[in-house]
Amino acid sequence: MSRPRAGTAGPGMAARRPGMCWLSGPAYDRAMRRLSHPTQRPSCFSAVVLWPLLLCAACSHPDDGIYPGYAEGEYVRLASPLPGTLARIDLRRGDLAAAGAPAYVLEQASETAARQEAQSRVARADAVLADLRKGARPDELAAIGAELRAAQAALALSRANLERDRKLVAAQFISRSRLDQDATAVRSDSAHADEAAARLRTARKSARSDQIAAAARDADAARAQLAQAQWRVDQKAQTVPAAGLVTDVAYRVGEFVPAGAPIVTVLPPANVKARFFVREARLGAIKLGQRATIACDGCAGPVKAHISFISPEAEFTSPLIYSNENRANLVFMVEALPEPGQAPLHPGQPLTVTPERTP
Questions:
Q1: Span 43-54, pLDDT tens digits
Q2: If you ran DSSP here, which 8-state letter would residue 260 be given?
Q3: What pLDDT is recorded for position 165?
Q4: Does domain 118-229 have CATH number 3.40.640.10?
Q5: Cα 320–40–44 angle (5° rounding)?
Q6: What pLDDT was estimated at residue 63?
Q7: Beta bridge pairs of residue 267
Q8: DSSP run (H or E) holding 135
Q9: Domain extents for the chain?
Q10: Which residues, at least 6 apart from 266, have a Cβ–Cβ distance to it below 8 Å?
Q11: Rounded distance, CA 293 to CA 305, Å?
């Protein structure tokens, strides 16, 4: 069945007049499919009754500032970036989960073992760094001190022998070569004493600055590895980030969950909004932040809201070529966010949105 051009009269139709509403866009297509289907074609009487109703229902371009729409929800899907077998599920569909409540736990034996290994590496790196920052142990200092005292005693004896032999050489009791031996012994013992004193000073100090810096970097690297291991453990056990209604639980205990697959879906009340469409001719009356009122069947009263989003892209109510004749079919999607503390809305719920008129 061919579709009459917008603004012209089709077979058996009167010419379109101002104030008279015709089917257009998706409403026209649905009506044509229903009328052309063999099992759903209405009788002559039904067609007479159906056509006026469809014509009136197609009048979706209100000029009184009241727009039909529906509730739309932005769901929070909890997933793990790591795969694993589901070990525990703490929520069921329909639960009202509080923020921070446990959601699920995946098996984490491998991640726990890796964390323990990283903790041991951190402890070892810290111990090495602490050992380098302090001097030798007391017993080591005592041993080096004893070596220093022995070297000093040997030096004193060598000096005494040198002085005594000088007198004997002067009295010509011994040869001068004996003095050379005594001088060599003094120099040797003096060097041993200086070596022991230097070792004692070094033992009382910490390691070299380069060694300490290298050990500190090793400790930082070990802590980074521990943080990575802890992150992997945390990703296997998720909590609810925001309070809301649990709308879906996709896996059961014992099932394998691929990486990134949503396990629990939560809908916070603040993530439910109203969505409606405004004609291009009336878009100038809609502003961001503009207050609006939402009405719905079953609502205790009007729901206060504000315009939170106006789509920058236009849409067509029917797949027509853009021209001046079908410009009236150009619409923009608008979203209104209910104020805090208002009655909850349900995704898919039909709504009526009335933006407040601005001066």
A1: 443 344 433 433
A2: T
A3: 79
A4: no
A5: 95
A6: 53
A7: 245
A8: none
A9: 1-59, 118-229
A10: 75, 76, 77, 78, 97, 240, 241, 242, 244, 245, 246, 247
A11: 6
